[in-house]
Amino acid sequence: MSTDADLPRVDELEAALRAQLQPTHLEVLDESAAHAGHAGAGAAGWGTHFRVRIASPLFAGRTRVARHRLVYDAVQPFVSRGLHAIAIETL
After folding, report:
1. What is the pLDDT of residues 45-71, one digit of tens each?
2. What does the H/E/C string look like for 32-80?
3. Which helix (H) or strand (E) holds 86?
4. CA-to-CA distance for 20 and 5, rounded, in angstroms?
C-alpha cells in the first residue's frame, strides 16, 4: 500500500512522458484534490488523479486509442505507487 510520500508527483510524470514521448507540448495537472474522499484518492487527497495534455511527433498516423496507449505505457510504473486515474488529451 502506498503512503502519501510515495504518491507520484507532477514532475515525475512529466519526466517519464518527456523521456518516452518527446512531446512538443506537455501539461500535467494534479487534479487529486478534486477527488478527496473518492475511493482512489490518497489519504491527503493528492497524487492519485492527473490530467495530461500532450502533443508528440510519435502520435503521427496513430488512432486516438493508440496515442492514449503510448501515454498509459509511459505512466504505468506509477500505478503501483498510487496513480489511480489519468485523463488524457492528445493534441
Report:
1. 456 889 999 999 999 999 999 999 999
2. HHHHCCCCCCCCCCCCCEEEEEEECHHHCCCCHHHHHHHHHHHHHHHHH
3. strand 85-90
4. 25
